[in-house]
Amino acid sequence: MLHWSEQGQDRHALWRSEGGMAPPRRVVLADDTLSADVAYRLACEGTALLWRGDFQNARHLLQALMRRVDRKPRKAARSPQAPATPTEAFHLHRQAQGRRARVLAMLLIPLDGDYAVPLRRAPDWREACAEAWGPAPGEPVVASLRELLGLVGAHEWRKKGVEIPALGAPPHNRIHPHYGVFSPVRGEYVDLVARAPLPPGCGLAFDIGVGTGVLSAVLARRGVRRVVATDQDPRALECAHDNLRRLALQGRVELLRADLFPPGQALLVVCNPPWLPARPSAPIERAVYDEDSGMLRGFLSGLREHLAPGGEGWLILSDLAEHLGLRSREELLGWIDAAGLRVLGRIDTRPRHAKAHDAGDALHAARSAEVTSLWRLAAA
């Protein structure tokens, strides 16, 4: 619950935070009379601003806060000092991201018990909120405006979908990501799965960490008769079920809630684990950050016993962690060897996303050298 005082009375509402942020301890009411400079100072101090003014003005204020939090200090602008190592650059980047998120999360929006926003010129976000959070609770809710905007953006992506050329021609080639499930916007890893040679006679495949279901769908469209796909996240399983139904592939793919492997063996076991060994700060980041390479090492150590004779394991992995100094190639090869596996081959591709070519990005040196690979593994 979030607690605050208003007109001499103690008030409270349900607190929503996808990132798991605790309810702010200090809350003040804010409206159109609040200047951006004062709002920024309060937000930096950890004071939350519960908005009571015009909704569109709240959006303008959030944009003003973004400009201030992204502004470089004058001293740093005069004498820029580059981080000593790529690893240091990564950690500084993560710290800056965390601070930015904390500051911007301080602008709060109230919602009624049916998820309606009780502010002037407020949009109707009830459908998007119910889609992400479930049925309306019947009592007031408070959430950060930034999170609400992300929720609505995810709602629009879910309606529109992401075109996946590897699934064939439109209109039957779209994946619709749900809120909290990582969208397959980096299509190069999907293309790797679409073009790697299937093991001869491959009638059964395992997809470890199904997410949106995109890789299961690609395998099914390539002719694999049955795919068993696993995930621990109920949102991911629901999202995959929705996408497979849209693609008329639900009869070919079985979804299981499991930690890594389903029971049994298959001729093909595919896994696209998070690529960076770091601690996620929000649920959506679990698709990007894998603390201590836990999922990667778990996949490698359990792969051999789940491979049918003559089977292959496909590990889809970027080498960005290597360029950032977070994991070495020698470590990866050592884990493969220790798991009783050997490398049959590797298919590489270069990333196509905008950050790979953005010289202003804090991690540009590492991103510009990044290679995404599909490692073909077999029992040693």
Number of domains: 2
Q: Please bin the fraction of helical residues.
A: 25-40%
In DSSP terms (H or I, runs of 4 or more residues), the helix count works out at 13
Structural class: alpha/beta
- CATH C-level class of the largest domain is Alpha Beta
CATH topology of the largest domain: Rossmann fold
**Beta-strand fraction estimate:** 15-25%
Taking strands numbered 1, 2, ... along the chain, how are they ordered across the largest sheet? 11-10-9-12-13-15-14
The value of Rg in angstroms is 23 Å
Low-confidence stretches: none
The global form is globular
Mean pLDDT: 93
Describe the structure.
With 380 residues, the chain is of the alpha/beta class. The protein is globular. Strand 10, helix 9 (234-246) and strand 11 (253-257) form a beta-alpha-beta unit. The protein is built from 13 helices and 15 strands. Helix content is 34%, strand content 23%. It folds into two domains: 2-157, no CATH class; 162-379, Rossmann fold, CATH 3.40.50.
